[in-house]
Specification:
The protein is α/β, with parallel strands linked by helices. The protein folds into two domains: about 210 residues, D-Maltodextrin-Binding Protein, domain 2 (3-Layer(aba) Sandwich), CATH 3.40.190.10; about 200 residues, 3-Layer(aba) Sandwich (D-Maltodextrin-Binding Protein, domain 2), CATH 3.40.190.10. The chain is built from 18 helices and 16 strands. It has a six-stranded mixed β-sheet with strand order 1-3-2-4-14-7. Strands 10-11-9-12 form a four-stranded mixed β-sheet. The chain has a two-stranded antiparallel sheet with strand order 5-6. Strand 2, helix 2 and strand 3 form a beta-alpha-beta unit. The longest helix has 18 residues. It is globular. The two termini are about 20 Å apart. The relative contact order is 0.18.
């Protein structure tokens, strides 16, 4: 089985520490926290399932409400969930340390991008799942959680990136907000109209102007152009090919030749501009919809971001939150079975993860629920994210032998955007440094 290799083996420790050392800078889905550990009180009687999460802000409040409902309704009888929210910066380090010491929680949240690195410390769900469990989830998301035949997690959601736009600025620029761009020619025309007819900037590839946000957009556009980050065997960098160089060139032209934005990568500058009606379009994940919906009077929508120049296919970058079953030799089979039932309930029975947090639920019941379909987010964003997930148009970060999510690894993207380096020189610098990371892995 995939989880039987000792977690203290040199390869496992080296690779996992390489992953968790920069966990605070992953930026995988916009969820972050610097608060103390919080939890839900659990009864001394009955069965208590320990559940670790890293959600804060709106995500954290929503997950807290989900756990509270479980503890109030008792769908599994005399079973309660004790939710422990660990600060984002510390989460994967603490989880790794706990698993090494055989003191892990019963279930825990994990980003899909990190599952491959923790897989030897996880218990496969296969022997414990309810009948027809696979049929309860969107097939493309369910399949993402399989490793060598083992179902190593249950998908909670997908959080692809889409193109968010200000409808009022579209109207001011003479554009039809109900007919957003579907290709680069239309996208360029829209951006040019905004810059010519309004006082706003037209487009920023991420509201945060951070390396990981830039990476998300780069992956979306690069894959649309037929490119990939690495070879299939993860031994060689390929993002510096013609497709990737074209995307890097676009990053430089946005703040240069086209003048759609300014070459300034100050933290969150574009986020502030977008919310203040000073930026017409930006790309971000599902979570951004809930943020925008909370703004009084802000008229926004989202469209599928299939607008890369030289596009060959329709695809966007995505990630997923999942619920894992950590290895714990002190947990008996009965409690493991109960933990699995709790994980199924969390992932399957809570459309609020979409209606309030803005993510695309992975479970079909939640996706088809009246609550989700009647929510304000369904027509604006979730329906389009659902279509992309159903059509297998989601490109996930590859399971690399090094920490692909380290923010500093991709710092050349903001440098290209800010004109601190030319697109070619920046890409060469990035390809060289990342190839070295690959070569350094034993």
């Amino acid at each position: 089985m995939a989880f039987t290799e000792g977690v203290n083996s040199p390869m496992t420790r080296r690779r996992l520490l390489g992953t968790i050392g920069a966990a605070g800078s992953l930026g995988l889905s916009g969820c972050s926290s610097r608060n103390v550990i919080l939890g839900n009180a659990a009864d001394a009687s009955g069965t208590t399932i320990q559940f670790w999460t890293l959600f804060s802000g709106g995500d954290g409040a929503t997950m807290k409400s989900i756990v509270s409902r479980f503890n109030e309704e008792r769908p599994l009888g005399d079973v309660r969930i004790d939710r422990q929210r660990i600060p984002w910066d510390d989460y994967y380090t603490k989880l790794y340390t706990a698993l090494v010491a055989d003191k892990g929680p019963d279930i825990a949240i994990m980003h899909q991008a990190l599952m491959g690195r923790f897989r030897r410390m996880l218990v496969p769900y296969n022997p414990y799942l309810s009948d027809s469990a696979a049929d309860k989830y969107v097939a493309t998301l369910w399949d993402r959680m399989r490793f060598d035949g083992d179902q190593l997690s249950l998908p909670l959601d997908a959080h692809p990136i889409g193109m968010y736009y200000n409808r009022s600025l579209f109207e001011e620029a003479g554009l039809d907000p109900d007919s957003p761009p579907s290709n680069f020619r239309e996208f360029k025309r829209a951006c040019d109209a905004v810059t010519e007819k309004t006082d706003a900037h037209a487009f920023a590839p991420t509201p945060y102007l951070d390396p990981i946000g830039m990476l998300r957009t780069f992956i979306a556009f690069d894959e649309q152009r037929g490119g990939e980050l690495f070879t299939d065997d993860m031994t060689r960098v390929t993002f510096d090919d013609q497709a990737g160089m074209g995307t890097a060139q676009l990053f430089g032209e946005i703040t240069g030749k086209y003048g759609w934005d300014i070459p300034n990568t100050s933290e969150n500058r574009a986020d502030i501009a977008f919310q203040d009606d000073n930026l017409a379009m930006t790309m971000n994940g599902t979570w951004y919809a809930a943020v925008l919906e909370s703004l009084d009077g802000f008229d926004w929508s989202m469209f599928k971001p299939f607008v890369a120049p030289g596009k060959k296919r329709d695809i966007t970058q995505s990630g997923s939150h999942t619920v894992i079953l950590p290895r714990n030799p002190y947990r008996d089979r009965e409690k493991t079975q109960t933990a699995v039932r709790a994980a199924e309930w969390i992932t399957q029975k809570n459309p609020v993860w979409g209606t309030r947090a803005g993510h695309l639920p992975a479970a079909k019941d939640a996706l088809n629920s009246k609550a989700l379909r009647d929510s304000s987010l369904w027509p604006k964003s979730l329906s389009k994210f659902f279509e992309m997930a159903s059509d297998d148009q989601l490109a996930y970060l590859p399971r690399t032998p090094f920490n692909v999510n380290n923010s500093s690894t991709w710092g050349f993207f903001p440098d290209i955007y800010a004109h601190n380096v030319s697109p070619r020189a920046g890409m060469q610098r990035g390809a060289t440094s990342i190839q070295r990371l690959i070569n350094d892995v034993d």
